[in-house]
Design a protein that fits this description.
alpha+beta, Beta-Lactamase, Hypothetical protein af1432, 3 domains, five-stranded antiparallel sheet, 10 strands, 47% helix
């Protein structure tokens, strides 16, 4: 061996050996010594057979390859894998490249230790098997499509959801499986996501939850919740879309049942409150209908301001009994045509507190007792019974306060004639931001200005 080739032989990072015709290892490099577990070349060269380093289950194959190579250099594979046994008996996976040295019975072998690679491949294989097992048995449908919407994988649970076999589902386009409205919504959502992809800073792990209607094989539809995200290449570019679909029928049914239960509860509460309101009106016939009219105006204001349906429900119920505390005020005071003394007026001013005491132990879903308690408070702190101000007064109470003043001034009372709606609105306009919440006052004034509301 020339000095140049000897240098290559010794300095390469791969184990190398010269194998004689009788399988003796006549020459090995330092990397081969390290791989074999021996200490020096002298322990191997001329003393060890190549076959000794083959695991028992690979022994026959190795002998056959060596025999064929001697007969015809092209008869045996030049590249193959086997398990190498080192001096300590450890098994190592190796990849070998062999070739005959022309004009001799010798062959040269290059041996690469691929043990770690094999372990990683096996681990990945096990992981893939595990994930496939999860996907194949998941109750949710796992669906992947390429960027042209062509299906690349559909889990077997598609049969439970839509009635199609996996093969039938793969043959369907999205347009055939989605209802027209859902398909349009899905394409719109995808377009939005692709726009986000153009941004420099974006969350690559983001998911998007959506609800669609899918068409079953029998033509019926099923509501589904879908979470979808992009599958990306090594550079973070989207290459596929992953969608996980779940049957939403039971959830929707439960929501409908819950909605009906809430409606029944509200109706029951409203009936109870109507009965309580009648008690007040029976004792004070001159203000009969006051609570209902105040409630109508308060709800119209709240709707104009964009309050939620839930807040509207609470405000409506509170409005119907906002004067419940007057049951403790003597009827002769409520109906006195000669006006009220200071002492009598002080007694009437206690009705929000009495109403609160009556209602506070009832478990409403809304702050009804608090609304009743605060409906005579003013934002400058001049109201009663507590003298609180500004945002310390809950919004529903601020709305009820404006509606209460407008209705009271516009209506007849035993101790005075009706002031009329114009004077009532002038009061609200002049005292907005002083006594009354400006947003509430403006909403009220707009309702009457635009003729969207009038008292019956």
């Amino acid at each position: 061996m020339t000095k140049k080739y000897q240098t290559i032989f010794e300095t390469t990072g791969t184990a190398m050996a010269i194998i004689e015709g009788d399988t003796t290892l006549s020459l090995v490099n330092n990397e081969f010594v390290r791989l074999s577990g021996y200490s020096t070349k002298n322990e191997i060269e001329g003393k060890k057979s190549w076959i000794e380093f083959a695991a028992k289950h690979d022994l026959a194959r190795m002998k056959e390859y060596h025999r064929l190579r001697r007969i015809d250099p092209n008869a045996a594979p030049k590249n193959y894998e086997f398990q190498f046994v080192d001096r300590q008996g450890n098994l190592k996976d190796v990849h070998i490249t062999t070739s005959m040295i022309p004009g001799t019975k010798q062959s040269v072998a290059s041996i690469l230790d691929i043990t770690e690679r094999k372990r990683m491949e096996e681990a990945l294989g096990e992981r893939e098997k595990h994930y496939r097992l999860l996907a194949e048995n998941a109750a949710d449908v796992i669906w992947t499509v390429d960027m042209n919407m062509g299906p690349t994988y559909i889990s077997p649970s598609i049969t439970r959801l839509l009635g199609y076999t996996v093969e039938e589902a793969r043959a369907k386009s999205m347009e055939e499986v989605f209802t027209p409205a859902s398909f349009e919504a899905a394409m719109k959502a995808l377009a939005q996501e692709l726009e986000i992809e153009k941004k420099e800073h974006k969350d690559l792990s983001r998911t998007r939850p959506l609800e669609f209607e899918l068409i079953r094989k029998d033509g019926s539809t099923v509501p589904v919740e879908i979470n979808y995200s992009f599958l990306r290449d090594s550079e973070g570019r989207p290459v596929q879309i992953l969608a996980i679909a779940r049957d939403a029928s039971r959830r929707r049914q439960a929501e409908e049942e819950a909605k009906h239960s809430v409606e029944k509860l509200i109706n029951a509460m409203e009936n109870t409150i109507q009965a309580m309101a009648m008690i007040v009106e029976m004792r004070d016939p001159y203000t009969a209908g006051h609570q209902r009219r105040v409630t109508r105006l308060a709800c119209a204001i709240a709707k104009r301001m964009g309050l939620s349906n839930d807040q509207l429900n609470g405000l409506r119920l509170a409005g119907l009994i906002h004067d419940i505390g007057k049951v403790r005020v003597p009827a002769e005071i409520l109906t006195n045509p000669d006006g009220l003394s200071e002492a009598e007026f002080s007694m009437i001013k206690m009705h929000p507190l009495i109403g609160y005491e009556i209602l506070k132990t009832i478990e409403f879903s809304w702050p009804i007792a608090q609304i009743v308690y605060q409906h005579h408070e003013r934002i400058d702190g001049s109201g009663y019974p507590s003298g609180i101000s500004g945002d310390d007064i809950i919004l529903e109470a601020r709305i009820l306060a404006v509606a209460d003043v407008v209705e009271a001034m516009a209506s007849h009372r035993p101790y005075r004639p009706a002031c009329g709606i114009d004077k009532a609105l002038a009061e609200i306009s002049q005292k907005r931001s002083i006594l009354y919440d400006p947003k509430v006052a403006d909403a009220c004034l707009q309702l009457f200005k635009e003729k969207e509301f009038k008292f019956e």
